[in-house]
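Service request form, structural biology core

Requester: graduate student, group of Dr. S.
Request type: structure prediction, single chain
Budget code: on file
Notes: please return the result as structure tokens.

Sequence provided:
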Amino acid sequence: MARRHILAFLSIMVTLIPLGALIGSIYCRAWEPATTYATLFVGLVAADVVVWQGYLIKRQLTFSTYLDLDKEWNSDEMIKLRQAVHAPGSEEWDHSRLEGILELFEKLASMFKLSGDMPFIYQSTLGWYAAQYFLFAREHGQIKHLRDLWQDHLYQDLEELYSFYLVSEVGRNQKEQRAWEVKRLTTEAHFWEQERKD
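Core staff response, request fulfilled:
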């Protein structure tokens, strides 16, 4: 986020340099350099507009994709998966259902990675659910089980999104992160009860 602001600031500064030179040339009545500076200034303004429009289109597409994922999350089919993936207090997990849910969150995480840190993704309800599911599945060895089963490092983007979510919640201090996770784990049984009610 800070990087984007720095780039925007630099872009504005680079655009303002020819404007300053244009004003100076006009003041000194140096018409030929003024024409060159005017052309350069207009070209840079046009480039800034194109870049800004590209950013807005990217953001709009990201939001549209997010809405599609949110709609899928609240679909009847996904609610059935959520209700039967894991019973509170049980050691049993339905791996095919868990995979379906984690795949949706992997799409969300991949979108977050490609979008270049758009906060609404991890600050949303869907981002919250992604963090809870990843934490609970990881703590019960389900992520490792699925990785071993498929002999692949599945859910890498989801793991990165979870790490980003964790940092946004409590910062980079590992002790505070683990305390946050322990606190979340105390609510796990209630979480699964709520999932079964949906």
